Amino acid sequence: MNKVFANADDAIHDLQNGDTIMLGGFGLCGIPENCIAALVRKGATNLTCISNNAGVDDFGLGLLLKTKQIKKMISSYVGENAEFERQLLSGELEVDLIPQGTLATRIQMAGMGIPAFFTPAGYGTEIAIGKEVREFKGKMHLMEHALHARFALVKAWKGDTMGNLVFRKTTRNFSTSMAKAGDITIAEVEELVEPGALNPDEIHVAGVYVHRIFKGSNYAKRIERKTTSIK
Q1: Is residue 62 included in any domain, yes or no?
Q2: Does the keyword Transferase apply (predicted)?
């Protein structure tokens, strides 16, 4: 099976209007920049995007919000995007806010084939409305369902043509779980090598989970918020 594609546009060729997509990264760190740009060019609409956050106004998922291609965001943190706020308050955008640990675990459970789990996070809040509640050791827990997506888009530091992936430092955050939770996982990498070139002990996602891979380019690697101090 040849998993190597020429570029992001070829890799997402069959992504359709209304699809549910997971996008790896945290803030602007480790996001699939090339795939997001290809989604903008493709013009797919009514997308449901699962991501820790929604980027900023002119970068990351903010680009898809700007073109109004996203119908629903399933996220944990969305505080850096003014366009996201405007669309939410105007009713243009559906939003499902999930506690960060719950979001990460729902994705992880999908990759592990576990349909649901119980967590105390969110009990007694609006998050609990309509959910099954059980008591464990005197503490109330909510039942949360695994979170699946038709496509998972991730960005890794290195990958081989078999789809094995190596992430660099914190860029693995949501990406390693998302890569296992998508029906079709697409990985863009900074460096694409031949099988055997990666140290097996350093591989974070095995190639069996990755369906398509390509070498990305022109990474901006933006910083979401830069804090400096004067002593």
Answers
A1: yes
A2: yes
pTM of the complete model: 0.93
Q: 99: buried, middle or exposed (CB in 10 Å: 19+, 13-18, 0-12)?
A: middle
| Structural domain count of the chain | 1
Identify whether 192 is part of a domain: yes
> With 90 as the cut, is the pLDDT of residue 16 above it?
yes
Residue 53 lies inside a defined structural domain of this protein? yes
Which strands sit side by side in the sheet containing 139-145, from one edge to the other? 116-119, 139-145, 133-136
pLDDT of 161-211, one tens digit each?
999 999 999 898 899 999 999 999 999 999 999 999 999 999 999 999 999
Q: Is the dihedral of CA 129, 127, 176, 210 positive or negative?
A: positive
DSSP 53-73: ---BTTBTTHHHHHTT-EEEE
Classify residue 221: in a domain, yes or no: no
Question: What distance separates the 2 farthest-apart alpha carbons in the chain?
Answer: 57
